[in-house]
Amino acid sequence: MPFARLATATTPTCHLGLGLAAVGRPGYINLGRDQDLGENRSVETLRTRTHELLDAAYAQGVRYFDVARSYGRSEEFLADWLNKNPRIDDVVIGSKWGYTYTADWTADAETHEVKDHALPTYERQRAETDALLGDRLDLYQIHSVTPDSPALTDKDLHVRLAEAAAQGLTIGFSTSGPAQADAIRAALAVTVDGEPLFRTVQSTYNALETSAGPALAEAHDAGLTVIVKEGMANGRLADPYAPDALKAVAAQTSLGCDAVALALILREPWAGVVLSGAATTVQLASNLHAAVVDLDDEQVERLAALVEEPGAYWERRGQLPWH
Predict the structure, then answer these.
(1) What is the mean pLDDT of the chain?
(2) How would you class 156 by CB atoms within 10 Å of its CB: exposed for 0-12, middle for 13-18, buried for 19 or more?
(3) What's the pTM?
């Protein structure tokens, strides 16, 4: 399994990864993104921005990079960076299929991505990913599985995914929505020829949304690598939007709210990789300070009071504008 490579790493940042959702396309739902990226969001501008982030992340010990077919040109930008750095052979690359990017490089499209977990979509997007990342791809995930996703019951799809696994590709899934725990547990039960199909799970978990925690612990105990996304709650846990309790704890640590928010997740014994979704190298450096934040029990208890009811959290997330 590719993540075994990270298990041998000794750098403080070995459990932090970089996701490229915020810089692979001109529009996304992170708060403050207008200030982060400015008005010039041409393909070449964001390609340069992505390469700067990848350079900085790698230099600071990050070894997992996460993209998706629906993150605009994220796979293309990452492939370009890998091709420019052929000596870099110690990174783990994950991508996702199941959403098609439809915004045509605009930030104000009526529809930014279309979800489809059917086998033909997998076949098409797998070919598209292979054309860009080839044998550099380590992990291919079903994007945003929910309990009603046909990907959980489509036996033909399972067979095709198992064939890819037999050829060396790690197969995983990501989740979203208020019923993440149900989706995780349903996916853990998926087998092909008596063997579990999925080897990784990527879920939203943060100081505001912790409902998937018990199911993620079960996945970890079952041998899956757990990847945590949206640890910053799409910017809601970063300055200046962070709640007062988080700002107070951050002040005690002399580090940013973002570092504290990510450090809270790193405390979980089941958290294999926690993603930074930084849009600037300054944000990235601040995020990576999470590796050295040492929270005491009183601080953790104060932050636990921030948890929201899952339905309310996901309703608010759904109302965030695309910037």
Answers:
(1) 96
(2) exposed
(3) 0.97
